[in-house]
Every structure is written in C-alpha cells, then in structure tokens.
C-alpha cells in the first residue's frame, strides 16, 4: 500500500525543539525598534534645532571690577588736581554687570538653559534689558549719561562731605522720542524744581517724580526765561518715567576727573565717592582691607538701590574682596545669596559706608553696624 501523498507528520519532539515562531517570524519587535530609533532621531534633530532658535531672554553675569583707588589702562581711575591728596591702601572695588545677548544677537534656548544652572547668572526678559521703544544705540547712550551723572554726583557728595562748597545745575540732556516729555521739555532746559522740590541732581529729580501721582510739575529756565510746565509720567517696569535724560552740571572748587571707559549706568556712584574721600583725607581709610560695593549716590550723599546685586556679590568674591557694601534697599535680594567668605554691611548714606570701612579698619566691634540679616551662606 502506497504512502499518502503530502508532507509527513511532524513528530512531537520536533515541535518542542523548533517552536512555531522560528518558522513564522513575528515582525513586531523589529517595527518597535524602528519606531524607537525614529523617536530618538527626531528628539536629537529637535534638540539641535532648539540650539539655534532665538530666545526672548538675555543673561546677566558678573562683569569686570575696578579699584577706585587704582588705575585702568587709561590711567588713574580718580585723579585730583588742585587739592592736597594722601596715599591710600587696600581696595575699594566697584562692580559691573555684563549682558549676554541683545535684540540683534539673541541667545539660544541652550544658552539660557546653561545660565539657569549657574547661581552667578541671572536670566531676564529681553524687553527689560532693552526696552522696545529704545534702539541699542539709545540704550547705550542712556547708560553713558547715567555714568556721567553718577560721577558728577559722586564728586559732589565727596566734596560736600569734606566741607567744600559746590554749585549745582541740572539740565535736560535729551528728550526720548514718543515720551510724555516731547513738546514740553527741551534739550538745554535748566531744571530748578520738580513738584516743588529743589532739583539738586538727577537723583532728587527721580525721587520727586516718584513721590507724586498724576502730573509732574517742572519749574525750569529756558534761554534765561523762567517757566512752569507739566508732564504726565507713564509707568514702565515699576518706575514713573517722563522721558528725559537729565544731566548733572556742577561747579567744583578744584578738578576731580574720573576715568572709566566703556562702562555705563549709575551703580558705581557710592564707590566713586568713597575713593575720592579716601584720597582727600589723611591716612588710609581701609587700612589695607579689600572692599567691594555698589549703590547709586546723590549729591547729598544718599545711597540708592541697584540691579544685579546677586551677580555683583559673586563678582566681589571672584575679585578677592572680603567685605561688601550693599544698599539697604537691596537687602531683600541679598538675604540667602551671599557667597561664603564675604561679609556684607547695609548702607543708606555715604556716611554709613565710611563708618563701616573705618570700623573694620580699626578692628573695632562691628556688631552694631547694619547688615542684611540672615544673608550669609555657609
């Protein structure tokens, strides 16, 4: 009897040794592997693309520091001619900030992410660092005028502290386009009073504007004629703005030159004033101690708040300072952010700053000096 036509039966042992999936491969794992590699490739491409996508942020970092008792590439930072000066010791360092990114060269999101990991860096909106109504050139010009005013107010504060007479004159250096001041105030106007308060300097003008809601009254002199005008300020980034660049013009009894190229803003005022006082008084104020500090200054010696205080604390440590002078109004930002090895004193006036420096120089008790409570990290 012949065998039936067809395949022979498969013995049970063959089934155990050669499972069905070997004879009929399942393609699903291969498809899943392809999908996984595709997702990874897409993620890598997206990450690479993100590296080139501009962000709406800039990064504020510690900038160069300068000893007001020392020199720059341009020569002595402070030069006094026509008055007796005395040798100094130690350091009185002013601090600066540097900005990474601008509207013409924005940072990528990868740059911003890297800055997030560094406690010395601060991420701020582009619109805060570069107000959209101002070009980069106009922002730089504003910083230059602020620095010039800061230097003039520092000289005035230092000379008044030392008992010298000065004559104060505040004028409009420029009017910002499309601001409330357009058509009301003009370049060259001499500002006599603001809201009834004497205009000693730029600082006093800003205080007078901030103190009154609604319209701001300016008593001015224009080409020898006295007049009163009114401007309605606008609020920008928490400040009341009328839209002018005021300029300090003082008459001093002798010449004081401050040479600091390519640095803008008003925050070095207090340190300028301290450097001048130290040079005009016998003995070294610091007794060799290395100080750093920041704060605006008025002609009357009032110290005001500044931006970027945390970055400046880190900049002070990097420069080797052991003691730091911080404006009282910045203390809330200082608390919890002081690098190890730095002692911070809070100051409200030029006199406060001098007292702190001299107390440390004499190795006297500093426990009664104002500090930013709780502001030291270990």
Notes on the structure:
It is a single chain. Helix content is 31%, strand content 26%. It is of the alpha+beta class and 378 residues long. Among the domains are: 25-53; 167-251, PDZ domain (Pdz3 Domain, Roll), CATH 2.30.42. Helix 10 links the parallel strand 19 and strand 20. Helix 6 packs parallel to helix 8 (269-280). The model is unreliable at 1-24 and 374-378 (pLDDT under 50).
Indicate the radius of gyration in whole angstroms: 32 Å
CATH architecture assignment name of the domain at 167-251: Roll
Helix and strand content put the structural class at alpha+beta
- The CATH topology annotation of the domain at 167-251 reads as Pdz3 Domain
Which stretches are poorly predicted, pLDDT < 50 over at least 5 residues?
1-24, 374-378
Number of H/I helices: 11
Beta content: 25-35%
Principal-axes geometry comes out as globular
Please provide a brief summary of the model.
This protein is α+β, with helices and mostly antiparallel strands. It is built from 11 helices and 20 strands.
SSE order and pairing:
Layout: H1 12-17, H2 20-23, H3 28-50, E1 57-67, E2 71-72, E3 75-76, E4 78-81, E5 91-100, H4 109-116, E6 122-125, H5 126-129, H6 136-161, E7 167-175, E8 190-194, E9 197-198, H7 202-210, E10 216-222, E11 225-231, E12 234-236, E13 239-241, E14 244-251, E15 255-258, H8 269-280, E16 290-293, E17 296-297, E18 303-304, H9 309-318, E19 323-327, H10 331-334, E20 343-347, H11 350-361
Parallel strand pairs: 5-16, 16-19, 19-20
Antiparallel strand pairs: 1-5, 1-6, 2-3, 4-15, 7-14, 8-9, 8-10, 10-11, 12-13, 17-18
Helix pairs in contact: 6-8
């Amino acid at each position: 009897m012949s065998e039936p036509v067809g395949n022979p039966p498969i013995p049970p042992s063959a089934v155990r040794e050669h499972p069905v999936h070997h004879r009929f491969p399942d393609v699903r794992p291969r498809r899943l592997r392809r999908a996984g590699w595709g997702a990874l490739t897409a993620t890598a491409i997206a990450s690479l693309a993100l590296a080139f996508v501009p962000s709406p942020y800039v990064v504020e970092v510690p900038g160069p520091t300068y000893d007001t008792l020392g020199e720059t590439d341009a020569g002595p930072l402070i030069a006094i001619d026509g008055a007796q000066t005395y040798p100094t010791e130690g350091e009185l360092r002013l601090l600066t900030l540097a900005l990474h990114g601008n509207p013409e060269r924005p940072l990528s999101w990868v740059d911003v992410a890297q800055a997030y990991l560094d406690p010395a860096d601060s991420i701020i909106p582009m619109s805060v660092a570069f107000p959209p109504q101002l070009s980069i050139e106009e922002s730089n010009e504003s910083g230059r005028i602020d620095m010039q005013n800061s230097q003039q107010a520092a000289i005035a504060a230092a000379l008044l502290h030392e008992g010298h007479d000065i004559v104060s004159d505040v004028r409009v250096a420029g009017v910002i386009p499309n601001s409330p001041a357009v058509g009301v105030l003009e370049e060259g106007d001499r500002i006599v009073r603001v809201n009834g308060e004497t205009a000693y300097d730029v600082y006093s003008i800003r205080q007078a504007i901030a103190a009154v809601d609604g319209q701001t009254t300016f008593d001015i002199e224009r080409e020898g004629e006295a007049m009163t005008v009114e401007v309605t300020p606008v609020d920008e980034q928490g400040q009341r703005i009328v839209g002018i660049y005021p300029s300090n013009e003082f008459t001093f009894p002798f010449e004081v030159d401050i040479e600091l190229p390519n640095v803008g803003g008003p925050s070095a005022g207090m340190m300028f004033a301290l450097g001048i006082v130290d040079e005009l008084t016998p003995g070294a104020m610091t007794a060799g101690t290395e100080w750093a500090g920041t704060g605006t200054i008025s002609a009357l010696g009032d110290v005001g708040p500044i931006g970027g205080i945390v970055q400046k604390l880190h900049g002070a440590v990097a420069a080797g300072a052991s003691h730091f002078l911080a404006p009282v109004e910045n203390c809330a930002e200082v608390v919890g952010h002081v690098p190890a090895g730095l002692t911070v004193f809070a100051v409200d006036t030029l006199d406060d700053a001098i007292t702190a420096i001299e107390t440390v120089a004499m190795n006297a008790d500093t426990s009664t000096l104002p500090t930013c409570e709780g502001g030291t990290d270990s």
